[in-house]
Amino acid sequence: LRGLADPANGGKVTGSGLYAEKKSVTLKATPNKNWTFEGWRLASDELRVTSDEIVSKAKSLKVSVTNELTYLAMFKPYPKVTVEVDNAKGGAVKGAGSYLAGKSVTLKATPKKGYAFCGWFDADGNLVSLNASYKYTVTADGLALQASFKKESALAKPVLTWDATNLTVGVSYSAKPTVVGESLVSITKGTGRPKGPTCKRGK
């Protein structure tokens, strides 16, 4: 009876050996760090999977020895969350790593002096979030984002406006505060937004 890990670096399997016919044997699968156990599959003598069917999803598999059997313990790596910056001089990011699917992860971007965080962008250049602290629930596909940092001189700070006449709140991006109706305007410090199409994913 043989129990093998697939792939070999995904984990360990114990319980393989020579046994008398009809003897009850337990194979045990233990995933390595940042790997998860998917289940057991039966393989041929050539170590080819004979079926996509999962024999069992339990890490411990009890088998009654009838002939020379090979079971493959199927392991899968944790999804990866990767983050990079478009300008290393502009700031730093935290939160990258390998995580179990379904786990909640917070990515944090911290701009350096003289720079402002401009946004999180995906591989296609689409804006994902303007929040420097971005909370994400890990999926099986993982995540790859880039944090954009720009010099503060190139950005206009967001301005919160309150329209007392229409009872509405708005946000503008002007270098100077604007008054709408009988409004009281305050400038939010911290993140900024570009005056033009300068806030985008870097190369």
Tell how many strands the DSSP assignment holds: 19
Helix/strand/pairing category: mainly beta
Number of DSSP helical runs: 0
Distance between the termini: 53 Å
Would you list the SSEs in sequence order as H and E? EEEEEEEEEEEEEEEEEEE
Mean pLDDT: 79
Largest sheet: 5 strands, mixed
Round the Cα radius of gyration to an integer and report it: 27 Å
Helix content: under 10%
As laid out across the biggest beta sheet, the strand order is 9-7-14-11-12
Residue windows where pLDDT falls under 50 for at least 5 positions: 173-198
| Strand coverage percent | over 45%
Please tell me what the overall shape is. rod-shaped
Describe this structure in words.
Helix content is 0%, strand content 49%. The chain has 203 residues and is an all-beta fold. It has no helices and 19 strands. The relative contact order is 0.15. It is rod-shaped. The two termini are 53 Å apart. A five-stranded mixed sheet has the order 9-7-14-11-12, with no helix packed on it. Mean pLDDT is 79; it is low at 173-198.
